[in-house]
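OP here, attaching both records as promised.
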Amino acid sequence: MLIFVGMRKMKFFVAACLLIITCLLHFSFREIGYTSSGIKLDSLRNLYEKPVAQWPKPNVDNGVKWEELKALPEIDSKKYFATMESPEVVLGKNLFFDPILSGSNQISCSSCHNPQTSWADKLEVSIGHDHAAGNRNTPSLLNVKERKTFFWDGRATTLEDQVKSPIEAHNEMAMNLKELPAKLNKIKAYKKLVKEAYGTDKITFDHVAKALAGFQRTLTSRRSRFDRFLNGEYKQLSDKEVEGLHLFRTKARCINCHNGQYFTDEQFHNIGLTYYKRKYQDLGRYNITKDPNDVGKFRTPSLRDVMNTNPWMHNGLFDNITGLLNLYNSGMQMNTAKPEQKAADPLHPVTDPLMKKLNLTKDEIQAVVAFLESITATQYKMNRPEQLPRDK
């Protein structure tokens, strides 16, 4: 009995010692300037305090078309304000914030794309006409002029085409597109704005679409600390953020999909969140193309200002960035179809092979979070029109 008790105490003592040693090693790594994976922080910083062309090679899979990360340009204030004062943009801004575009006269484009919340709405899914809930998260309109397709499923290819869907959708603005021009033509103030923008005072829906698209093209991200780092202001990023940048491009594999100036490949991927035959099922791109290979695919969102645009994902179910990165860390292959399942059911989703188990440590995940903070700029909260176009 005494020997048994002694062995238990010895095991407890050894376990306690191992825990203490592990903690000491963990803290000593940070204190003496190493990452959790043993890379010297000074060496890592030296690698990235160089022109981008000289950075370490990223971890990109064969066949992936990618672009290196790139800074946003400085905003030409004179040009920007001249654009904001142009007749088309003035008209578009008024229309964007005007609930008259909805069937109820209570919902505007800005109801879901709020300038106070980075041009999204901070809700899981959009809420529209008669408080009807959609089934997808509202994307931010920041940098929308750079998108190749629109909506999570890419069903529109131009901004002018994109504006039609939310205006006429029964669970969004619920406005008959054929009736909207007649509604606007009754307001002399709008007829005047259309005359200034397009040379005619007879308002058509084409005018509405062009003006809304023109205004949305002015919505751009401000430069972040990461942009300034890319331009040589190397003190803008902390050691932890530089570590996160390195992980983003290498071990975490983010750059396979989130690359270029806007951190998106503009492609569609199934990352394992289709919820096939479950409560949150959404077949994504397949609903547009009817190609079984597109089941569960959604457009890669831009990560510009990502920390201001939560909740995340096409269904808005994730509001904790660490938890979300933990999901990616798992590889997300748990629901992918096996060959026999795909043969029996062509619509059974297959998770993109780009999704792989990452084996990131907790510290490494927090470093990636820190980097995402660095690419999130200070919000520019555009003022709403002081008075909407109405006849006195």
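Record two, same layout:
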Amino acid sequence: MHIVENNGGKSGIALHKFMDIELELGPDVLVPREETEILGRAAIGLLGGRDPGIKVIDMCCGSGNLGLAIAGKVPGARVWSADLTDSTVATARRNADRLGVADRVTIAQGDLFGAFEGLDLAGSMDLVVCNPPYISSARLEGDRSELLESEPREAFDGGPYGLSIHQRLIRDAAAFLKPGGWLAFEFGEGQDRQVAALLARARAYAPVEFVADAAKTPRVAIARKLDPA
């Protein structure tokens, strides 16, 4: 993961490498981290071998990195991405245009799944993928305050316990997934037990599976939506 400069007619545009694609970033947009590539690889693995026409939601999309990587690696995928702020949505749209996948990637703006109101996406998704904020508000005021020096608070602040967005994601994703569809998301170090409890409490998913980083620390949750029948 590194920054390069585009000198081909747009000098000064910083491009960031994420899963073999180069993304334009901005001052109010989260820089994708290496650990998020764990989530990206897991998501693409879940979609391997599925029929053309698969549908994916990339929630809290930021620069668009996860949804755009999926669209690039899975040519049959149709992706709907969403974020809350003007800057992230504008950046994600520029990246979709740059990468030539804007015909398969829709970037919407809104509060989580409210961004897709009126699009008739309920019950149709093969995958919902998300890298939500997962640092507690108190830590952002304390030992992790340096994160806010150059990146937006919205990208990090997960509420009092770091899991406020996860709670909403787990609850609301079930309505958009088809039976057998997958929910895959990132979480912070040491949050795996709370994540497992949230998923179990939802009663909409099969038992969670975790994907660990190189240090064998769980960082990604994968849960399959149950068939209500």
